[in-house]
Specification:
Rieske_2Fe-2S_sf; 2 iron, 2 sulfur cluster binding; six-stranded antiparallel sheet; iron-sulfur; 2Fe-2S; Rieske domain-containing protein; mainly beta
Length: 112
């Protein structure tokens, strides 16, 4: 008879084996119009998939902390299917940072 794993080893196994990769959520036809959303649970984490005004599909991890802002996760559409990647090691930001303006702006520090 084997003993069940403790909670720490279970969480570690979930983080390394299951969360590291792309996971199928649903078909794109599930959110056909801008403003539509879909709430799913992926390996115990609630994820909201929405279609914005530009018809882009985006996914957000819902934090359970009070006043926690939704955290963007990687989302891809392949062959009409929505996939998300919850692995934080795989990417730093779900969306690329905007490019800095080519000109610099001088400002006076507040202590001056």
């Amino acid at each position: 008879m084997s003993t069940p794993p403790d909670d720490r080893s279970f969480r570690r196994e979930m983080a390394t084996a299951y969360r590291s990769g792309w996971h199928f959520i649903d078909l794109v036809t599930a959110i056909p119009h801008s403003g539509d959303s879909l709430m799913v649970t992926v390996f115990g984490e609630p994820v909201v998939v929405t279609r914005d005004e530009e018809d882009d599909v985006r996914a957000y991890r819902c934090l359970r902390r009070p006043r926690g802002a939704p955290q963007p996760v990687r989302c891809a559409i392949r062959y009409g299917m929505i996939f998300v990647n919850l692995d934080r090691r795989d990417h730093q930001l779900a969306e690329p940072a905007p490019q800095a303006a080519p000109h610099t702006i001088s400002a006076t520090p507040r202590s001056a």
